[in-house]
Automatic annotation (TrEMBL):
Record-linked Pfam families: Peptidase_M13
Gene designation per UniProt: KEL
GO biological process: proteolysis
Name the record gives this protein: Kell blood group protein
Recorded GO MF terms: metalloendopeptidase activity
Domain Peptidase M13 C-terminal: 4-56
InterPro entries: Peptidase_M13_C
Length: 56
């Protein structure tokens, strides 16, 4: 999460981060396959943002 942003609502950002983390964790993966959601968070957030724009 971005730090030092006085205009950011950190609680809301943390809630959104946890929601996105749970959402992507629910996707089934092939056996012996894993991913580090800390490394993919920005890509996941960009995917959600792109979908939100596309569906407007």
């Amino acid at each position: 999460l971005p730090g030092g942003c006085l205009a950011c609502d950190n609680h809301a950002l943390q809630e959104a981060h946890l929601c996105l983390k749970r959402h992507y964790a629910a996707f089934p993966l092939p056996s012996k396959t894993s991913f580090n959601d800390s490394l993919t968070f920005l890509e996941n957030a960009a995917d959600v943002g792109g979908l939100a724009i596309a569906l407007q």
